[in-house]
Amino acid sequence: MASDIHITIAPETIFQIGSFDVTNAMLGSIVVCTGLCLAGIFIGATLKKTGKPNKIQNAIEWFYALIEGTTSDSIGSLKKARPYLGLVLTLFLYIVFGSWLGLIPGILHIGLQVTPDILYPLFRAPTTDLNATIALAAIAWLTIEYAGFSSQGFSYLGKFFQFKGGLMNFFVGIQELISEFARLISFSFRLFGNVFAGEVLIVVVLALTKFQTNVTWLDYVGVPLPAAIILMEVLVAMMQAYVFVSLMSVFIALATEPAHH
Amino acid sequence: MTPEIFRQLAFALAVGLGMIGPGIGIGIVGGAAANAVGRNPQAEGKIRTLMILGIVFAESLAIFALVSGFIIYFV
After folding, report:
1. pLDDT tens readout for residues A217-255
2. What is the SS3 assignment for A238-256?
3. Does B53 touch chain A (CB under 8 A)?
4. CB distance B64 to A193 below 8 Å
5. ipTM (interface predicted TM)
6. A3 contacts in B (CB within 8 Å)?
7. Helix A130-152 vs helix A167-207: crossing angle, to nearest 10
8. Residue A23 host element (H or E)
């Protein structure tokens, strides 16, 4: 039974351009980015500045107010939060739609038939690829460091290497440095683990209704069964995106506050 | 006892034992948040934010255990 399920942590290569492997998570990422850009262009053209907003504009304004409120509450004031707002909104949208891509019913069944048993999906949610989540974590981490350096200059390093105050403060500084780097791992693995585990859960529940011998249309009767799990994963994706963004804001706030001595 | 059996056992143990700590931790955070809102209902928004933050940190440890299990089983 376990051999029927094709689950890999690393995304599968669909084709190669020269010696560069293009994986299905990359294709999924291209779909998400293209979709977001097109949505931005078309919805942006219909936005009204005065008068009663229509439903889509209402939803977008509510979402924008939510993220702006979270970020400016964490960082302190809207003025200080403004440089980071664009990045924060984009990361949220990429994470949410990147995770939702894998939840569209049937999308994991479109793919290349590599052998009679194994199907490589053509599109895979980019947040289920550890490469993508490490990249997002690196972007967030670099933004936090940039916030620290741009607000305090090189005295930002004084938080990690504290030579005054005795030996205890020195070790506190070293521990702060280690936890600074641990944020890379925690950001990336939290997002990857949540979304990947959700996809694995859906695939396993789908496989529970599979017939062992010839694949017929009856195989697809079980597709609505993980509906509750897919709904849970929709909520989990939104929560994980919100958590990523609010954690990033909190760390930016911690990096920009001057050292307390 | 083939390696396949050990793999499955290791996966189950990693995930099962790794969920005990975060489960207790999340319960403690949730209870503290409920207590705090009971004492001071006006600060509910701020307390909810802190609670979500605390839960997320605890949950990420559970996710580390789960991912370790996946790596044991599939890699």
Report:
1. 766 676 677 888 899 999 989 989 998 998 999 889 888
2. HHHHHHHHHHHHHHHHHHH
3. yes
4. yes
5. 0.74
6. none
7. 150
8. strand A20-23
Q: Is residue B21 part of a domain?
A: yes
- As a residue count, chain B comes to 75
- For residue A198, pLDDT beyond 70: yes
Q: Is residue A184 a contact partner of residue A138, using CB atoms and an 8 Å limit?
A: yes
B22 CB-near residues (< 8 Å, 6+ apart): B58, B59, B61, B62, B65
Among B49, B63, B71, the residue with its CB nearest the CB of A190 is: B63
CATH of the domain at B46: 1.20.20.10
Nearest-CA distance B46 → chain A (Å): 10
Query: What residues make up the domain containing B42?
Result: 12-74
**Residues facing A119 on adjacent strands:** A113
pLDDT at A1: 45
Domains: count for chain B: 1
Cβ–Cβ < 8 Å for B18, B64 = yes
Q: What pLDDT, in 10s, does the model give residues B16-58?
A: 999 999 999 999 999 999 999 999 999 888 888 788 878 888 8
Task: Say how many CA atoms lie within 13 Å of A42 toward its Cβ.
Answer: 6
pLDDT category at A157 given cuts 50, 70, 90 is confident
Residue B49 to residue B55: CA distance in whole angstroms: 10
The C-alpha atoms of residue A189 and residue A137 are separated, in whole angstroms, by 9
Mutate which: A6, A185, A189, vs B, most B CBs within 10 A: A189
User: Does residue B28 belong to any structural domain of this protein?
Assistant: yes
Asked, for residue B6, whether it belongs to a domain, the answer is no
- Residue B43: per-residue pLDDT: 87
Tell me, yes or no, if the pTM score tops 0.80.
yes
CA distance B10 to chain A (A): 16
Which of A9, A200, A250 is opposite residue B71, by nearest beta carbon? A9
The answer to whether residue B60 is domain-embedded is: yes
Q: How many CA atoms lie within 13 A of A231 on its CB side?
A: 5
